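LOG
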Amino acid sequence: MEFKHKPVLLEETIKGLKIKEDGIYVDGTLGGAGHSKQILKHLSAKGTLIGIDRDREALQASKENLKEYSNIKYIYGNHDEIEEILEEQEIKEVDGILLDLGVSSYQLDERERGFSYLGDNELDMRMDKTQELTAKKIVNTYSEEDLANIIYEYGEERFSRQIAKNICIKRKEKEINTTKELVELIEKSIPSFAKKDGHPAKRTFQAIRIEVNNEIKPLYKTIQTCIKHLKSEGRLCVITFHSLEDRAVKNAYIEAEGKCTCPRDLPYCVCGAKSEGKIINKKPIIATEEEQRENPRAKSAKLRIFEKR
């Protein structure tokens, strides 16, 4: 299947990176290379782009999409390991980093990978097909309490406890193997009056996907690490699609910016507050109405930008 992925907030992201033509940039979520292609267009032959992705199919697709460019290095890995990746490349600091979080349109459309609640496919949801943890394992082995907590926290699903309860009842009879089986259990768990706001399985599938791919827990530290490896005036652009992601990015930015806690009547700072840079946009940048109409995925997208001192 062709890897199709329409990059969200493309113009805003490229502008936010303030690309230097001879600079070194990192796309930590290469995907179909929509953002990377625009970055490369702004780089000279002396500039370098490092493209990272943990999905081998995405890497392969991006190589095809960017075959006209020679100043890009393709790295199979996770953006949470960016420090180790840069060390391996013998690079200490870069001019800009982009993280476009969440699942790609291709991964959702490739039904056999189990990301989508449409169709009847094996429960998988792994971005990295080499890892052991799958959606099937979570659904069939996690305790009822853990399932309920994950679905509530990562999916913001108010009927999480009923969904978890019905999953555990069903799996005692038979292992839950497919997306269709899980969707039927979710639909059974949600009352009719609450099924008007999109597909009833959307929030639960999102929650399980986040747990499978460990998308939230390392994010705060990853943001701190990215800022650490920026050059002076280097920019970090992060696009999120979920409130937990956005909160982690926002809080990491606030800490990196630093805040003096001294009493206002003191003539100078004595608290030792240290700033690593500044937040460029206090409020997240969102997609225009036109982009949201053309690309539904853009509706929940938020872009936050940080500049190193």
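LOG (cont.) second protein
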Amino acid sequence: MNATDTIQGLHCVAEVKMSYRRDTGIEQKEVRTSKDVYDMAMSIYDKDVLDYCEQCYVLLLNQAGKVNGYRKVAEGGMTSASVDIRQIMQAALLTNSCGIAMIHNHPSGALVPSRQDDNITRVLQQACQFFDMNLIDHVIVTSEAYYSYADHGRL
């Protein structure tokens, strides 16, 4: 190994890639309301898992509010899932998203946001503001109903 090999090795950085195709297999629906987010969530979630373990998804929206795609950003147990804001923002940036909507389920069926739900919403909203994106909603879903931070004036 010579000095050139060492220097070149310093410039190698692991790369994250995301495919960007219009044909994602989902209809490019416009998302404007919490009901739109909920309907999209019900088309994404595996109904056999909805009441079993907590999962978190992010909808990636273009300037017109249409869904470019979605990404699962966390999966946990019955009571929690560890959400990493960096993964959400990475997906949003790599897809040139102008807005996002966060969705997660409560297997217990409770629609009351937890303190952790409130904290992640606040931090995600700050991250979106930093990157000039809109957090249009954070929706908690159950097999029966949903809770919207936007509808409750909490965004």
